[in-house]
Design brief:
The chain has one domain (4-14, 43-276). With 344 residues, the protein is mostly helical. It is globular and about 60 Å long. The longest helix has 44 residues, at 300-343. 76% of the residues lie in helices and 0% in strands.
Amino acid sequence: MYTDSKILKSLFYIQLFSSFLVVVGHFTASVLYFNDPFWVVALNQISRYGTVLLTIATGYLTAYSFEAKSPAFREFFTGKLVYIFLPYLVSGILYHYLLKKDMPHTAEDYANIFMGKTGDHLYFVFMICQYYVFAYFFRKWITKQNILYVIWILLAVQYVYINYLHKGWLGLSTRHMLPSWIFTLYMGHLLYWYREAILSFLRNNRSILMLLTGIATAAAMFFVVSSKLYVAVHLSFVFATLLSFLVLMVFFLELVDHLRLKFRKGLTYFIFLFHSAFLILFKDFLFEQYGEVAWVFQNTWYSLLYLGLIFGCSCLLSLLLVYLVRGLEQLGKMLGRGRRERLQ
């Protein structure tokens, strides 16, 4: 039987895998400037699954949080402030400095940091922050009882906004805005609310699971060989990723009792935030030492070793940040408890 505990563990593995795909995406984008063998192009296309998998997982975990914890306004947004928004601002300042070799000092600089424009991937967090506000205030309007109807409205909103309504206000791309992802996010809610029925069906109908696996694999191959670039918010890409999400969910559920990776709150998020810093720092280092980096990317084994180094350093930094944030959170609780005792 698939318990909620096992499902949450499988989601952690999906998030970890997704964060690796995000790293692969930005790494291969760098390689394409110098070399574009088939394996690089293929990895770059497949890596786009990472962001969509993270989006669906975010929707699932938010629905779980609302139902299992019923957080009050202060509790919900304090957690998002500590674990999501403040690290996001720190990363924005870091990328501003790394790219411009100067600390932010103008209103435009701070506005760019706030809107996630200092790092190519920070648009995602800017959008997720919009989602958390929307999800909290609409949690009593979009429910399990009506999601099977509302999801079609959200599908239409995502399609219409992307194709007709978005105008690039404030220099923001389509991906910066919540309507471009709203259907994808609430598919995560739907999966949470109907997890027992969906997972039981897949567990009891292995032939259907194999069919979904075959379709998901064929879709991935199609995206690899297609001359058209399918961005993460493209609905055909979203549906293909949804199939992959279900397959990965079942796959990791079968492995959770055998894997010994311990869940670390914030780990995958910190990998997502800070991996690009290592891409920038290592590239600058190679330029200083050798004058160019093409020799790395033109050798497959050097490239893979370089990718492993980027991901490994990102994981180590993220683990340190997990312990730091946890320590600060515990310190805050101790100070708050001490203040309440003094008032009593």
